[in-house]
Give the backbone structure.
Amino acid sequence: MRRSFSLLSLALALSACATALDSGFTPAAPPSIDTMKSVVREISADSYEGRAPGSAGEDKTLAYLVQRFSALGLQPGNKGSWFQDVPLVEIAAKNVSLLTFTGGKTPVAAAYGREMVIGTYRTAQPHIVIKDSPVVFVGYGINAPEKGWNDYAGLDVKDKTVLILVNDPDYETASLTGPFNGRAMTYYGRWTYKYEEAARQGAAAAIIVHDTVPAAYGWNVVQSSWTGAQHVADSANGNADKSAAIGWIQKDKAAALMASAGLNLDSLTAAAKKRGFRAVPLPGIKAAVSFDNMIRKHSSKNVVALLPGKTRPDDYILYSAHWDHLGHCEKAPDGDDICNGAVDNATGVAALVAIAEANVRAGPSDRSQVFLAVTAEESGLLGSAYYGDHPLFPLNRTVGGVNIDAMQIWGPAHNVIVIGRGKSALDAYLDRALATQGRVASDEPTPEKGFYYRSDHFSFAKHGVPMLYFETGQDLVTGGQAAGAVAYKDYEEHRYHGPKDEYDPKWDWSGVQADLNLYHDVGRALANTTDWPNWTPADEFRAIRDKDRAGL
């Protein structure tokens, strides 16, 4: 039965958000919604040109955030600097050939854009050529020793092209139980993992077979996201250890390829869902593709601000949000081509500033608090991933934290949707904070879409640091689930990643205030306890955390 909730109880929660709960929750004034408004209004203005990494909009955004953090009296978080350089490379594939498969009953060719997309992570290779590359179907492309699952067992794929299925083997399971959490996607189901594992196995090319249901988006999303310039992280070796070519192919083309090899894609897919599956070489089939790379190296920046702790300054609480957006994008009917990113994610950056301001006003907590505005989230979590690989504060001394991405502005809700609910002990902190507002936490309605692996908190989770991320719930105080569904759909169809995600003075900020208070309360509680919240015993990140914390 739903917990009772009213506008009055919400108002009380907003005015006294930090009601004392268990250890770590201390009374404090709530973060200022006026501060949030001013930041969102500023950095989503047209003059910031959509805040693309490497643009004049980045320079303006960085300068503004430093000005706000400095005015609060925070300290620069990187040895006297407010910035952490993030080396990026912009790569645009040009002169892309057909992706061809020969040696079967009939040749199969896929055209760039409408039938396949291709690219590379290699940042020092202006021309990519895959030629006479044997093709192997590797099922879901998973190597998970802890689950007794290895699609590459007994296989040498050096210089070969691997075809990979998207999502996990048990994604069609109705429940959340199974070797890969049933319907809930694990990281093994994400395309990023599949390319990483293919590279570890030595594959020359890794091609994912697109299927709308397990991918959770249509081919139009793949085509728009993978054509044109791409940002990738740079490395000392120019990412030479990555596969030379990575990409996607339409399912019907993959089926035609299998038929040419005397095989059946549906039968192979069914076999790949079962434990003990072994990869299937496509007899006689050779792959070929080539393309040029237009390469531009540049350095973007994470912004890092520190509020030192008073009694345990070597323990750290992390607040993260991405400052970047898409810059100039496809024009709206009125000619507007600036993707302002007001909701996504000027609201998250504004929340960082407001939460930092509230903590300064309340005085230092026991533990230190780090406010991290990261770059290039829209390019694949690159800024947060760089911090995870090159932390400015030890990750084994980072207690945990919160990630804030796209706070919604359609009014208060009875609930919040926790992305990855049940993964760590941070849920208990959120539940206690929600109790002060008479609200509840809800599970993700579509766990098969793998949202846990698609925002910046994941970059820290990969290194064992528990991070909390939630979204405004759809059960709105005014209008309930029906109104919430309409609001979500309207945003996704008319503003998300488009020129009309702009600041609107008519927004309803009451729901933002309630969620802002939750992020503040959870962070402040973590900053004042001696607890070290961990992942649940069976979680995929538990072993990483336990190893990292061993001996401390």
